[in-house]
Amino acid sequence: METKLDWSAYDNTGMGDPFGADPFGAGSFGGDAFGAAAAPVAGGAFGKAVALCTGNRACLRTDSPGVMCPSFRATEDPLHSTRGRIEALNAALAGADDAVDFSDPRLAEAMALCLSCKGCKRECPNGVDMALLRAEYLAQRNAREGVPAQARLLASFTDHLAAYPALRWLVALRNRVAPLAALGERWWGIAGDRRLPAPAARPFKEASPASVPAEGPQVALLVDSFCRHFEPGVAEAALAVLRAAGYRVTVLAPAADDANPTRPLCCGRSKLSFGLVDDARAEARRMMAALAPALAARIPVVGLEPSCLFMLKDEYFSLGLGPDVGRLAGQVFLFEEFLAREHAAGRLRLALKPLDLPPALVHGHCHQKAYGAMPAVSTVLGLIPGFSFGMIDSGCCGMAGSFGLQARNQAVSRKLAEAALLPAVRAAEPEAPVVADGFSCRHQIRDGAGRRPVHVAELLQRALA
Description:
Blueprint: H1 45-50, H2 70-75, H3 82-93, H4 105-111, H5 119-123, H6 130-145, H7 149-155, H8 157-163, H9 167-176, H10 178-188, E1 218-222, H11 225-229, H12 232-244, E2 248-251, H13 269-273, H14 277-296, E3 301-303, H15 306-313, H16 328-331, E4 332-334, H17 335-344, E5 360-363, H18 366-370, H19 374-381, E6 389-391, H20 410-419, H21 421-427, E7 434-436, H22 439-449, H23 456-462
Parallel strand pairs: 1-2, 1-3, 3-4, 5-6, 5-7
Helix pairs in contact: 3-4, 9-10, 12-23, 17-19
């Protein structure tokens, strides 16, 4: 089997349960298990990544805190758990040769509701990375069956926005005219009763270089596609806060020798989530070329969108981008991670004033939780004098990028949102800030509760003295 992603990190891992002869347990779901006793035979290191699952079944619990596994929490169907997907993959890989059948309808059904939340990578005792396994599965299926039109549209929508600005007006029209939304559902599978995120009238554009302070420690700001095209105010707030703290901030731009230097940078997350590995790799190479000067000069790189920022520190290893990827972990930070790090080192000089607001509610993006970034959010919000806030005890918001925009996912998306997040937001005081760093989380809250959430950067900007 020729894999589309680099799975060499799993070359030296074991295969299945080290204590039992039957690593997957035939009949583990009441006789409806996918695989028999054998661990995967085909797939090489990819098969070893599948075999990390030893049947702990933490993903089959709904009474414990955490993110994993959102689709099982919503459906209570073992097929839609990390474990169920592993058994489906195990069955596909259990043949005697490398002729793996990724077109099995049962495998497609198991993968259909995976939100790529990364909860399993942190909460599974063995660190099964189902989001990455799913990306390989989709890439293999795309190679055999072609890329679905819906996947092409959603994976590259921000590219289309950059190339065709008139799409902004088309989205606004679609959101206002119900028959157009109904046609979108029929043709593209986009839920007609969902409002699409509204692109900003003017995408983010950095001010002239003359506005960059001449002194102070350097920082490079990574403005992701979502901030650039939908919520430029988030990037503008981050710039204001960082510069108020005395940092000399420049916005990361394409490399001078980029084949298309006017096209904005993109991490490639949306493309990878639909199995478009070659397209994601091309975006990642552009990003690595843009990052090269900052990496060489040891300049911190600060990002705003959790799913994009952690793409650099995780999935880039699987895209085969070379040894420089290893340097990202020590130089690339989420906005709050950077500020918390500078505060801990005694370097942060940020004058903030109290905010006359009720206690805020904070919802963490799944990737912030999966990569342990939520303590930094608490630290940074605690810098605002007298500011009170509480964390919403919620798992996945249910939007998960474009997952919640697809008609076939509506029941799961809404059920996850209504489990804890939306009721907590509705119960909050009208003036209480709702803080959410994830773009899709903010969209889910806005769409389901009618509240406008803010990014941490926006809240800090309001508190600048």
